[in-house]
C-alpha cells in the first residue's frame, strides 16, 4: 500500500513529469508578472499590460502571451469592431494557479535571506 506522500504528483504514479510541465508552463521571465496583472483585472488590453511591464519587449510579451494561451492559462478575446480590440483574461485553469503563486510568495518571504545580493 502506498503512503500518502507516494500518491502525490512529486513521487507517486505521476512521476515528476507533471511538475516539470507546470514549471515549463509558468516559466519564462515575464509569465509570472503577466498572470499577476491579469489576476487583478478582469479583461486587460495588450497596451495596458505592456505599460504595467515596461521592461519587456513587444516580441517577448507577444510570445509569452501566446504560450500562456496555448497552455489554456489565458484567453485572448478579439472584438470585432472598427478599431480592432484584443483583451486578455485568465481562464479558470489560470485562476487555479493563484493559490500556488501565493504559496511561492510566502515561501520567498520566509526565506528572503537567500535572495539578498552579495556585495563584492
TrEMBL record:
Identify the InterPro entries for this entry. Answer: HTH_HxlR, WH-like_DNA-bd_sf, WH_DNA-bd_sf
Q: Which UniProt keywords apply?
A: DNA-binding, Transcription, Transcription regulation
Name the domain of life.
Bacteria
Domain HTH hxlR-type spans what residues? 9-116
GO MF annotation, one = DNA binding
Q: What is this protein called?
A: HTH hxlR-type domain-containing protein
Amino acid at each position: 500500500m502506498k503512503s500518502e506522500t507516494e500518491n502525490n504528483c512529486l513521487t507517486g504514479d505521476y512521476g515528476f513529469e507533471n511538475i516539470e510541465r507546470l514549471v515549463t508552463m509558468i516559466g519564462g521571465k515575464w509569465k509570472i508578472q503577466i498572470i499577476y496583472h491579469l489576476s487583478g483585472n478582469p479583461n486587460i488590453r495588450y497596451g495596458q499590460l505592456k505599460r504595467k511591464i515596461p521592461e519587456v519587449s513587444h516580441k517577448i510579451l507577444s510570445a509569452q502571451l501566446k504560450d500562456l494561451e496555448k497552455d489554456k492559462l489565458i484567453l485572448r478575446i478579439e472584438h470585432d469592431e472598427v478599431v480592432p480590440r484584443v483583451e486578455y483574461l485568465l481562464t479558470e485553469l489560470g485562476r487555479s494557479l493563484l493559490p500556488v503563486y501565493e504559496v511561492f510568495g510566502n515561501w520567498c518571504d520566509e526565506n528572503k535571506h537567500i535572495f539578498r545580493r552579495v556585495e563584492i
